[in-house]
Amino acid sequence: MLSQCLSRRSSNNNQNKTINGDFIMIFSIDVEDWPQSVLNRSNPVSDRVYRNTMQVLDILSEHKTTATFFTLTNVACKFPNLIQRMVTEGHEVASHGTTHGNIDAMTVKEVHQEIEVSVKTLEDLSGEKVIGYRAPNFSINESVFDYFCEALAHQGLRYDSSLFEIPVRKYNITKKYPLDTFKKFGLDEHYLTHVQIKGKDFPFFGGGYFRLFPYALTHYFREQYAQDAVFYMHPYEVDTGELAVIKKLYNDIPAKWLITQFIQRDSVAPKLGRLLQDFEFSSFQSRYYSPIAPLKNETNQPIVAMPSDPLITV
Ligand SMILES: [Zn+2]
Asked: How many whole angstroms from 38 Cα to the centroid of ligand 1?
C-alpha cells in the first residue's frame, strides 16, 4: 500500500522532470561496507554502512523515489532496521549475496548455498519475497551461467542484474549474451546501461563514472538514451569522511584507490539530488513485476523483531 502511495506521489510530482517518452531509470544500490566488501572481506562490517545507507534513503525520501537495494546479508543481519526502513518506505529489498564473495570463484554447491542463505535471510528480515539478484563485483560470466541461473530459479527469483551488454575484460564479459540465455531458466536479465562515445562503449550511469564526471554529462546521456536505463551506486560513495579513516589505518594509499574509490565522493550526494529532481526513477520490482505478496509466518507477525537504532544507543 505504501509503495503504491509513493508511486502515485511520484507520478504527481513529475511536472518538472525530463521524461524520455515512457522511459524511466531504475535506481539500484549495492548495499555493502567498503572496508569489508572492497578492502578485505575478513574485516567486520562497520557502522559507516548504516549511516551511508540512511543518507541515501533520506535523499530518496526527499525526492519521493523508490529504489532497489541489492543488500549483502552481513549488512542486513547487523542492521536489520535498515531493511525495515527500506520496506516501510516502499523500496525493493534484493540480494547481493552474503559476504561479497565472487560467484565465479565458488563451486556449484557454494553458489547454491550462497544464494539460498542470502535470499532466505533477506526474506526473513523483510517479510517480503526477494525476486532480484546482483552478483558481487559483477562476478558472473559465461562459464557459470547455467548453475548460477539454476540457483536463482531454485529460490524463486525473477531477475538478475549483474551483466553489462558490452565486453568488459575486468568482469570476464566477452560479448552481449542473448536474453534467451536467461529466459530458459525463467529469469530476466536487466543489463546495466552503457552509452557510446565516439564508437566506444562506457557504462556511464553509476559508480565511478557518475562520481568523477560532471553531472551535465550524465544528464546529457540520459536525455539521449531512449530506453529504460539502470543506474547503480554504493552507499559508501556518499561517505566523505571514510578516506581520513582509511588513511590512518594505511599510511600509503595507492593512487589507484584514490581515483577509483575516493576522489569526488563529496560530489555524489548533490549530484544525486539533481538526478532525482531531473528524471523519473523506480525500482525493478515496481517497474517490471506485479506486486509481490508479503511473506507471513504462522502468527502473521513480522518474523524478526527490530532493535532500536544501533547508532543512537552507543
Ligand atoms: Zn558489491
From this structure: 8
